[in-house]
Amino acid sequence: NAGVTQTPKFRILKIGQSMTLQCTQDMNHNYMYWYRQDPGMGLKLIYYSVGAGITDKGEVPNGYNVSRSTTEDFPLRLELAAPSQTSVYFCASSPQGAGRRDTQYFGPGTRLTVL
Amino acid sequence: DQQVKQNSPSLSVQEGRISILNCDYTNSMFDYFLWYKKYPAEGPTFLISISSIKDKNEDGRFTVFLNKSAKHLSLHIVPSQPGDSAVYFCAAPLGVSNYKLTFGKGTLLTVNP
Description:
The complex is a heterodimer. Chain A is mainly beta.
């Protein structure tokens, strides 16, 4: 199993551009998540999904959109990139979620810089 | 508002000695805690967890202690090894499930040979 994979690893965007961060997991996990980590800070939840077709906002959803058309994929869309979105983005997945204490498995991250 | 706090940004210990990483929390409703470990350029990986019905959980060289009255938990690594050098995050679920984790800012542990 590859686990959770993210592409690209690095990206530089200009202000106002848009892009999609890709995330795929091959563990058949129902739950998937997007986090961002700013320098010297902990991870903040952006969006999460409890299954295909179901998504919900986390702590810091503004400026982002997500979709979940399949169990495996959970892309994160940035519209009108701003310097405040410069961060490292982590995708994660977990087996079940509700009612269970499953750990989350993280991808290697995408380092995004907006200039 | 930070509900999980790691007040030490960094910690340096000698190989073979004990490493103690601390975490405080403000929400008395938290009933489960997790520690994640993160190497540079990698995603966090789960290390160990503890339920609030316990005050200690051990897994090999790693032990987590929970003091509910003080709203404090600590991660002990004995003996510390250079490969333990990483950032350690304390986290807690915001609710009955695991999916809304709130993380501390992390502590960078450096184990010197």
